[in-house]
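Module 6 notes. Inverse folding takes a fixed backbone as the condition and produces residue identities as the prediction. Think of it as a translation problem where the source language is geometry and the target language is the twenty amino acids. Below is one complete input and output pair. Work through it position by position during the lab.
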């Protein structure tokens, strides 16, 4: 039976080598599928950009204001006067958890109006020890950061987020999944969105969901195609489960 298997493999390899037309045809089909996938992703991305233009109704109302990014308007000045709490829920995440802690501790925001909550409900003692060590290190570096745990893990993620909310007086929250790597300017780009260009509080806006990206987007044609298709797809419901969002206290 083993000999028959080896013979079958050898026959298949020989057949493929002796039929270059078939090999070339298969390669062409793969290339065409990849090209169509990328073109579809570009169309999807163009539609996303068009939808983005319709997401801020005050763009038309504030036509007399500068048309630069929100971070260059009065909105940023007002936003910087508010306190922001970054929440990092995690469960046995290991190195991913340490990576998102490091990224969160390097976000650009006034340090006297900024704190990080590591909502760790892990069951692995070694993971807990690594998280605690990382938090101590960043705290010694001047970051207002602490670990919040609850025995029994009541409610797990949802319960952890609620306990964290009650433990801070921050006006705004930023939430990241453990596999996220937020850019240093994440808060500078998102928190001002809760204000108009002139600095007025948009009280009817409760949540800002950021667009996702992938670290390996340029690794290959396949990852590029997947990135074009996936990166602009966000959930229709604003539940705090996707980990790339900012919200106000309610």
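Target side of the pair, the amino acids:
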């Amino acid at each position: 039976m083993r000999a028959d298997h080896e013979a079958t493999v050898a026959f298949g390899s020989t057949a493929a080598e002796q039929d270059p037309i078939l090999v070339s045809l298969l390669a062409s089909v793969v290339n065409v599928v990849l090209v169509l996938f990328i073109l579809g992703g570009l169309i999807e991305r163009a539609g996303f950009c068009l939808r983005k233009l319709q997401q801020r109704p005050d763009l038309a109302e504030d036509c007399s204001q500068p048309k630069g990014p929100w971070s260059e308007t009065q909105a940023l000045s007002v936003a910087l006067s508010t306190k922001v709490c970054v929440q990092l829920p995690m469960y046995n995440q290991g190195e991913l958890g340490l990576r998102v802690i490091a990224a969160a501790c390097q976000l650009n925001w006034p340090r006297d109006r900024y704190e990080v909550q590591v909502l760790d409900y892990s069951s692995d003692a070694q993971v807990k020890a690594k998280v605690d060590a990382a938090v101590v290190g960043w705290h010694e570096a001047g970051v207002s950061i602490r670990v919040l745990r609850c025995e029994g893990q009541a409610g797990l993620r949802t319960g952890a987020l609620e306990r964290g909310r009650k433990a801070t007086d921050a006006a705004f929250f930023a939430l990241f999944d453990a596999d996220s790597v937020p850019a240093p300017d994440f808060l500078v780009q998102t928190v001002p969105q809760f204000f108009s260009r002139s600095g007025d509080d948009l009280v009817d806006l409760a949540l800002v969901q950021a667009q996702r990206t992938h670290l390996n987007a340029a690794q290959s044609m396949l990852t590029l195609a997947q990135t074009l298709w996936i990166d602009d797809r966000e959930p229709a419901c604003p539940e705090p489960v996707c980990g790339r969002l900012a919200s106000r206290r309610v």
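Reference fact for the lab report: The beta strands are 84-90, 114-120, 145-148, 172-176, 207-209, 244-248.
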